[in-house]
């Protein structure tokens, strides 16, 4: 899954992408007209806690992929293939910048709806099919909603309708995360974010690209001291990654042990068999059952043995609906 980072020129998206991807900022600036890709760990505090308990040889976080769009005007065609959009704005006139961006997304979707309606009307004349009529009604509903300057992601849709709308890759139907890049001396001023959250019901992260860049260059000890000095509890980049991860409809389950503690990303609503297949195809093929503990139970009780004593250790079948934070151990036979 791909998250696209975009924004007005000089809003800080290049600096943000450099921190996220680990790529050198000067190399990024040398290619402002090219799309660039990179991956980032989703720093889950639960993984950190499990690592403290198991002291494993290896730690693996879930990863997400970002794509930085060229530093030019609005590009609907490049946004079309995104699974999620991350829009970066400077704090100055942030509300106005966001309004303009959302309006551009709405206009692009209205053009697509109009084009599809024209096609459906022509098809209806040739063949009066029930499927075409249902889709035509749905597109008319979308058009009416967009004309009120509402994004399609906020429209109530039946499950079947939502699946149809998703196939068109409408820009306003995609998850959108807003990132407000504030000056360093405004890092603890939450008034701008509160204003944005009141006006738009999108996830909103406040950060200072300058502070985040400095944090990224420090050792673990110096990083903690610096963050305490500026009054933040963790890098905003880590918070942003978790918000983006959730926006993609993903959850994490964990596999733990002395060799490795690992977070595995899966779609919310996935069953145990699918989760096992994400680790290795043999697990899905030869699935027998899965041992399951809840993260909170394990942390509260302190060990697998104590979880079993408390009757909170379970064996689940292939159709078990995996929940965020499950500790899983798969049994399979191939």
Automatic annotation (TrEMBL):
Which Gene3D superfamilies does its entry note? Answer: 3.10.20.30, P-loop containing nucleotide triphosphate hydrolases (3.40.50.300), TGS-like domain (1.10.150.300)
Determine the domain of life of the protein's source.
Bacteria
Among SUPFAM superfamilies, the record links this protein to: P-loop containing nucleoside triphosphate hydrolases, TGS-like
Name assigned to this protein: YchF C-terminal domain-containing protein
GO MF: ATP binding; ATP hydrolysis activity
- What UniProt keywords are attached to this protein's entry? ATP-binding, Nucleotide-binding
Residue ranges of the YchF C-terminal domain? 250-333
* Any one annotated GO CC term: cytoplasm
